[in-house]
Every structure is written in structure tokens, then in C-alpha cells.
Amino acid sequence: MNNSNANLSTIKILTYMMFMMFAMTTDAVGVIIPEIIKEFNLSMTAAGAFHYGPMAAIAISGIGLGFLADKFGRKVTIIAGLVLFAAACGLFALGHSFGFFLFLLVISGLAIGIFKTGALALIGDISDSTASHTKTMNLAEGFFGIGAIIGPFIVTYLLTSGVSWKYLYVFAGGVCIVLCLIAAKVNYPKTVIESSEPINLSRTFALLKDPFALGFSVVIMLYVAAEAAIYVWMPLLLSEYTGSFAWAATWSLTLFFTLRAVGRFLAVWLLSKMSWEVAMLLFSGAICFCYVLSMTLGLEIAVFLLPLSGLFMSMIYPTLNSKGISCFHKSEHGAIAGVILFFTAAAASFGPLLMGVFSDIMGGHAKYGFYMATVFAGLLFVAMIYNWLKKPATQRLAQQNISQYGNQ
Questions:
Q1: What phi and psi, each to the nearest 5 degrees, are found at residue 217?
Q2: How far apart are CA 105 and CA 57, in angstroms?
Q3: pLDDT of 86-129, one tens digit each?
Q4: Rounded CA gap, 370 and 367, in Å?
Q5: 3-class DSSP state of 39
């Protein structure tokens, strides 16, 4: 293997590890929330701040700072974000109050918005076609899925060992320091600037006028809102289940994350067998089916179908995210990644918040929030039917294939 190929492999591994590392913290909140409800005597809405607080910070950072990856380069942006994230995670060891922990989560959210937009833009730099971009994105999100399994496992292990859940963040901070050292030694590919237009926040907001940026962002919001219901509120929903399959309720979140991770690796193969439009149609329909049956037939069915939805959710987000970013020139990938990340994190923040508020209003039962999530899943399915019938992004993606990669 020559130096160029070795460097490219290192960049890919670094990118995959970054996705895995921050997933350990963001997707462990479903296990942490029941603990902080007891520890600090909180309502569902207040405890949910552990999720929607950092998600709101990611949203603000994504749209407000996403252009940094285009202006200062992928390497500087990624290292800056990783350093800030490591510092926030390390400080968890010193905290004892809910307010202090929430403050650190907000800081970590800002950091994630910085280094994730850099990583998303980097995927475009190392791809040789829009199809290659989608496959690499699914692989990266596959490692995110692995992190989403590791995080809850670490929290569960800590709690059963009598150790505070906060040391999950200390562990993640340590991993982050290692990634910083690796990132500092890697040579990154240069990004070709397409125009002389200033790279700043105004340029990012200008992208909001593009119908492809808005279209993909809105569809991704629907998906994320439906998905977030699983890892934020499903443990609480199924905690009241006492039927014959109580073991399934205990392992439901682990099963969901496992199926989601496996599905993202399988997506690389699946996308070579069918068009992405057909795949999105089939999988969004299956998600809607799982939600509707779970809500109409009760917990005896939900205990199996809600975790199973992870398999169908697996390739939705990375594929839509990739296609949305691929509709733009590489020199804009940081900014457009930030725009899509804003809508992603906003949905991940306010979706569970609305579900928690609605559930509290209706008496504190999590099932009412899942009724709302079912509506989001239904709207996503309708959007994917339109995408399959009209194929609105086909021409734009073909143009980018020709102009940037020389592919017909």
C-alpha cells in the first residue's frame, strides 16, 4: 500500500471512529434519563433536557459554524471540535448537579456540530462519485450505530457496578483525545473552491433558499423525529410492560441499536442491488407499519416491533443525508452539511421535547408521545412515495457526478 492509499485509509478510519465516539454519548440518553429522573426528582420534560439540550446546541453549531470546514479546512475544524468535546466530557468527573451536567452537554453539542460538519465535508473530498459518497456515509453511520450500542452498554455496566453514569462521558473524552492526536498527523485532501464568493455565515443562509437543501432537510426532520422517540422514550414506554416477554423489553434498546448498526453495513450491499429511491420507499413503509401496529395492538406487539424498526431505519438517514449533500459542490459541503445538521438536531431536540410535553399533559404516559411519532413516520412514508414517483433529485445528482467526478 503506497503512502497515498495508507493516508486515505487512515482518514476513513478516523472519520468512522469520530462517528462512533460521539454516538456513545448522544444515543445513551435513553438509559441515562430514567436514572436522572430518580437522582434529581425530575419530570419527563425536565429530564428530556439531557437529550434536547445538546441537540439544540448541535443545531445551532451546525448552521452557525458549518461554514468553518469550508473556510479554514477540514483538518483545523475537526481538531478544534474534538478538543472542545474532550474538554467538556472530562469535566463531567468534577460535576454533581443537574445544571452543571446540562451545561457540559450543551458545550459538547456545540463541539459535535463543529467536528461533524468537518467530517461530513471530508467524506465528499474522499469520494469519487455521488454513489460512492452514499456508501461511505452509510459505513460512517454504521460505526455511529456501533457507538450507539457501546454507549448504553457502558452506562448499564457502570450502574450495575455501583458507578455513576457520568463516567461514560469521561471515557468518551479519553477516546476523543486519541482521535485528536491521530487527526493532527493525517494529511487531508485539498478542497477546490468553486467561486470567489466569501465563505461565511451569509453564504450558509443563502443555501436555505435552495429547494434541494430545504427538501432533504424537511424529510430528514420527519425521520429523525420518529427515530428519536425510540432511543429517548422507548425504555420508559416499555418499563411498564410486565407480560410474558419482559426479557424483550429489557433488551429492546440494545436490539434496536444492534439492528440499526447491522442494517447500515448491509446498506452498502443493498444500494448496489436497487435504486436509493426504491430502498427509501420500502424502508419508510416498513417503519410506518411497525409504529402503527405497535400503537394499535399494544405493548405485547410494541416490545418486538419498535426494536425491529431499527433495521428499517438503518439506511434512511445516511442515504438522505448523503444525497442532500451530494446535490452541492464539494466547496459547499461544510455549509450544506451544517444546514442539514441543523434540521437534524432540531428534530432530534424538539421532537422528543414535544412528545414529553404531550405525554405529561396526558397524564405522564409515554404512549401519547409515540402517537405523535407515528404521525411523523406516516408523513415520512408519504414523502418517500413522492420521491419514488417523481425522482426530483435525479437531474441535480447527475450534474454533480459529471462536474465534480467526471462520471456519466
A1: -65, -45
A2: 9
A3: 999 999 999 889 999 999 999 999 999 999 999 999 998 888 88
A4: 5
A5: helix
Type of residue found at 10: T
Q: Give the integer Cα–Cα distance in Å for 170 and 93.
A: 7
Q: Is the pTM of this model over 0.90?
A: no
Per-residue pLDDT band for 4 (boundaries 50, 70, 90) equals low
Retrieve residue 120's grid coordinates. 461530513
327 φ/ψ angles, rounded to the nearest 5 degrees: -75, -5
Residue among 384, 395, 378 nearest 278 (CA): 384
Euclidean distance between CA atoms 113 and 88, whole angstroms: 14
Cβ atoms of 321 and 124 within 8 Å: the answer is: no
Rounded CA-CA distance 20/328 in Å is 26
The 3-state DSSP composition of the chain as helix, strand, coil percent (nearest 5) reads: 80, 0, 20
In the chain, the amino acid numbered 361 is: I
In our burial notation (b when 16+ CB lie closer than 10 A, e otherwise), range 254-290 reads bbbbbbbbbbbbebbebbeeeebbebbbebbbbbbbb
**pLDDT for res 145:** 87
Answer whether 142's CB lies under 8 Å from 148's CB.
no
Give CA separation, 221 vs 58, 172, 177, 267, 314, in Å. 14, 27, 31, 21, 15
